[in-house]
Amino acid sequence: MAAEHPAQTPPPQPSRDTLEIEWQLATEDLAAVRRWLGTPAAALGLRVEPRASQVLHDTYLDTPDWQVLRAGFALRVRRDGSRAEATLKSLRSARTDRAERREITETLAGGATGPDGGDGPVGSWLRRTLGRTALHPLFSAHTRRERFAVHPEAATGQIGEIALDDTQLLDATQRPLERLRRVEVERTEGAPEALLPLVDALRGACGLEPARENKFAAGIRAAALRPPRP
Q: Which fold is adopted by the domain 16-222?
């Protein structure tokens, strides 16, 4: 694997509406995964290269009567350094073997007071759906994320990203709840099947299993919240 050269983070896109495709794997030993990623992946026809790490501060929000969840979405505000973005993520995956969910994101300008104050698709949807009902925090997730870009061995384009996430869940008062360690493999370009050999190799070499719940579901459970069925 090539020596680490932290990449410059590209400027954020004002808004995007995408289909997120990823595998979420649970582990208790991120160090073992890190060591495995340090070995050549040429046998899989891939190159795995480290990227700049991130520290992410996520807050999940909804109304007191769960209007966002009832509409089939989770609402997250993510802060990464000086940046902030709001994301609506569909709750139901189109598949069971991996997560395939619609994700609508907009960058929050410095003057935005909350996710419903933006001019993009998230803010517009929230104002249209919630009316004057105020949002309130459900729980937070603070994550240290190590990232690795995945390239075809004989090409330069990036087809995926591996994230090693060490996440602390906190309730609405910032009281620590639970710690999660996850490995996420996300498709960035091309057919997701190109990443299947990597996912299978990770599972076999590092003893990883599919995560039983995503971070939103884990936070709801850890915070002892009782939402209605979406």
A: Hypothetical Protein Pfu-838710-001 (2.40.320)
Within 13 Å of residue 98, how many CA atoms lie on the same side as its CB?
17
* Interhelix angle 196-206/30-37, nearest 10 degrees: 130
Decide if 214 contacts 24 (C-beta within 8 A). yes
pLDDT score of 8 more than 50: no
Give the separation between CA 45 and CA 32, rounded to whole angstroms. Answer: 22
**Which helix (H) or strand (E) element contains residue 216?**
helix 215-222
The 10 Å CB-count burial string (b at 16+, else e) for 102-138 is bebbbbbeeebeebbebebbbbebbeebbeeeebebb
Dump pLDDT digits (tens) for 59-71. 999 999 999 999 9
Q: Which of 78, 172, 69 is nearest to 126 (CA)?
A: 69
Closest CA to 74 of 139, 148, 163: 139
Strand-pairing partners, residue 86, are 77, 106
93 alpha-carbon distance from chain centroid? 14
**60 beta partners:** 76, 139
Residue 163's identity, in one-letter code, is: A
pTM metric for this prediction: 0.90
**Using CA of residue 8, residue 99, residue 216, residue 124, what is the dihedral sign?**
positive
Residue 11 has pLDDT above 90, yes or no: no
For the chain, which residues make up each domain, given as ranges?
A: 16-222
Provide the pairing of β-strand 136-152 with 160-171. antiparallel
The pLDDT tens digits of the residues spanning 104-150 come to 999 998 656 678 877 899 999 999 999 989 999 999 999 999 999 99
